[in-house]
Amino acid sequence: NLLNKIILGPIRFFDTTPLGLILNRFSADTNIIDQHIPPTLESLTRSTLLCLSAIGMISYATPVFLVALAPLGVAFYFIQKYFRVASKDLQELDDSTQLPLLCHFSETAEGLTTIRAFRHETRFKQRMLELTDTNNIAYLFLSAANRWLEVRTDYLGACIVLTASIASISGSSNSGLVGLGLLYALTITNYLNWVVRNLADLEVQMGAVKKVNSFLTMESENYEGTMDPSQVPEHWPQEGEIKIHDLCVRYENNLKPVLKHVKAYIKPGQKVGICGRTGSGKSSLSLAFFRMVDIFDGKIVIDGIDISKLPLHTLRSRLSIILQDPILFSGSIRFNLDPECKCTDDRLWEALEIAQLKNMVKSLPGGLDATVTEGGENFSVGQRQLFCLARAFVRKSSILIMDEATASIDMATENILQKVVMTAFADRTVVTIAHRVHTILTADLVIVMKRGNILEYDTPESLLAQEDGVFASFVRADM
């Protein structure tokens, strides 16, 4: 259930939740629920029953002991109350200092190449040691609190033994019963210690249940839609016509809109370039096509169907997107191009040939069945981008969205990518979010955005003719 909730969670959740926190829920917290809570409950039940049995036996052997039971009980209550409050805070401190350590380790592993390139190994090592020391200090305080409890319960146990001894001397009970009562009095210290520690541990461990439950109660994306999948034409979208009506988008209900009343019309098969400065809303518009952000007003209509009515799986499976960081999955080249195994080998080779990857794949052992490592690390960024293009071609998507797809590749690979797009998607609608403005000079339509609004909207030739225009200034700066 937890995995399903994460997989179906809104995209915003991954933007606002650190990876280390998610890993902690699946590792430490799940381990606590599965491996720690059951034995803690069993130990608490056993130690409580043993403690009550010991007190009952002492009281039966030396009834006078009942007089001292009330003050001893009050002392025990305050000791356990004081310890449980401190123990809970110290355990939370230990957990809170562990999370930055996990996050730092994860970030270091992911950015190892950059760290080495800028020779910042010492700084990251020092930061790791600082975080480790902070976590160790919290753990030492927690251990010290446990030792504090043991000392207090030992004193309390000694008082119980002393009280039971005095009660046995003052009474006229059978010597055998007195001896049995004293024997139980000697063991009660250990029972008391475990009762308090188990109570404190259980209270802290239930925090893991609360944390996991917060993920389980997280609101998922609306996958259903109002339109039945059977009502969607089999080859939708076939033409690639896009109408954007007064589109307003925000990332969360309590945040300001990132797109404000955006209007645009894209004809079937048009090549559209979108540019603007950082924060202008370019990527937010691309996310809106896949309903990864909250469209709270307006609509996007593709081939006559409002995308807000479509089941989410249907919408996302019918459109293609290529991101700045291309994604390949562990497995084979065949799996990455056609995960559902619907296409023939000839179709896959055709896609690879169009993407100018055919010769490279043929040279690999296994060809289409050649291994792709995690994240596609055995291929360059440019090759991964071309694989993503081949995948989009295989899917026969009539709409392709490229979100700064050329930002991380060199000029030579960028030229290949542009050539492939112009060839393979000549009759399809292509929306390009431009990192380099010169990549959209050949587009049929250019949209310039600023602060969530469309600033300029025309052909590249018309916009370049406006010497004081924003697009013209972008082109001059890019030359």
Automatic annotation (TrEMBL):
GO MF term set: ABC-type transporter activity; ATP binding; ATP hydrolysis activity
UniProt KW Transport keyword: yes
Pfam families cross-referenced by the UniProt entry: ABC_membrane, ABC_tran
InterPro entries: AAA+_ATPase (IPR003593), ABC1_TM_dom (IPR011527), ABC1_TM_sf (IPR036640), ABC_transporter-like_ATP-bd (IPR003439), ABC_transporter-like_CS (IPR017871), ABC_transporter_C-like (IPR050173), P-loop_NTPase (IPR027417)
Keyword Lipoprotein listed: no
Domain ABC transmembrane type-1 residues, every copy: 1-203
Domain of life: Eukaryota
Main localization category: membrane
CC per GO annotation: plasma membrane
Domain (ABC transporter): residue spans on this chain: 242-476
TM region positions: 57-79, 177-196
Compartment(s) of residence: Membrane
This protein's UniProt keywords: ATP-binding, Membrane, Nucleotide-binding, Repeat, Transmembrane, Transmembrane helix, Transport
Mode of membrane association: Multi-pass membrane protein
SUPFAM superfamilies reported for this sequence: ABC transporter transmembrane region (SSF90123), P-loop containing nucleoside triphosphate hydrolases (SSF52540)
Name of the featured protein: Uncharacterized protein
Taxonomic source organism: Mus musculus (Mouse)
